[in-house]
């Protein structure tokens, strides 16, 4: 069925979203929802997959389908331009992906590229992507599952174990002694790394054989933490001494020591930002962060770390990590796999709210009028990007609010088959905004409903941001046509930005429209990119 609409004196046809726009069939593809969209292209799809990952299925596709699509896109991209693929992997791995799994997976596929350029690109970016021993074991696991340990892989593994500072490597091999089905001993035996120094030789001997007898003192400064770890294994009742003198992390001390509140207090005083985010609940439960005689100093330290842009950036803390920590902490232990429970400290909730806003790239107000249209359809509440059911709708609401907080002229509404007021404004906390949007998840997806409402109400917007999975299929008008009608009737210069929140290969942006953009929604720089588009910088 085709519907007639009038643009001034010109009659045009509007097509239901389950049919391609007449005359545009060759440029449109059918999404998994049945609606017709435009093809995103390999590079746009690649970035989405790298930033979002495919470990969880979406409403319309299983994780296996998404992963197979990711592999297909990667293989095409590697064949076309392996150096560009390498750049995209590094971009995602530098704290922009919600975790490092997708970049590591892509790194493995890059090593399988047929051209010498692909092999060279793999070798050149390996240390930028595989930064920790946990990354290293994950890379080994993926490599084993899809390609095996050939020459180029063995060379990369050997170099990772042989180069760099011995003290830093000792820290990694002690902190992460095993992950993903591999241990540090497995790595040494597989890659036959030769120790370049006496320090490295002693480290490798500890990895392969351990210490049956504890040396009277650390053999070298590089092995100081290992000596105190071994000492703690033999003296678990002196956990606080080992933590203090050996500067042990909780991953090192907890498995072998006796962890009382004093031990956790010492760990807290030197805890890096990532570990602090993950352990806020545990630290509250045992009393380190609860309101008590000495807790104010501790709470001040939490604020000084989590509310520091420098710490957030150096720790490669993704906004989703902070959002996940906020949701977990507020639950008091009801979310996640931990059996621990705690009473949330209000100040820590406030600190996390501030940290969440600060974790995005800094943005400057543009003075433009924004309409933020958040997809609140059922599919957006189904897709989870973390183990605690953090949905696309929650993430979309968070990112829309970050952008809105920088501006004075804006509206935030939600679309499914209707376009409704979410009652969200820039004074909302992220927690309250998420609750307002999540309580209204319903119905099918019709992105054109946002434009129709704006036309009906003569809402003048310079920039229209649609936060969506792009699977628009309901309604009798395609979003592209509704946008054209809005420009004809309300604002001919309106810019449309579709922020995609699922790693698929579809887009609602007409490639022939120079005033519409499609960007990946999980990038911490997304709000800044939106402001740049709005101000005409991009």
Task: Write a brief structural summary.
It contains 26 helices and 13 strands.
Topology:
Blueprint: E1 3-7, E2 10-14, E3 28-30, E4 36-39, H1 42-52, H2 63-80, H3 82-93, H4 101-111, H5 116-129, H6 133-146, H7 151-162, H8 166-175, E5 178-179, E6 182-183, H9 184-191, H10 198-209, H11 224-234, H12 239-246, H13 250-253, H14 261-269, H15 273-278, H16 280-285, H17 295-306, H18 309-314, H19 319-331, H20 346-358, E7 370-375, H21 378-382, H22 392-405, E8 410-415, E9 419-421, H23 430-438, H24 448-456, E10 463-468, H25 479-489, E11 495-500, E12 506-507, E13 516-520, H26 526-535
Helix pairs in contact: 1-2, 1-3, 2-3, 3-4, 3-5, 4-5, 4-6, 7-9, 11-12, 12-14, 17-20, 19-20, 22-23, 22-26, 24-25
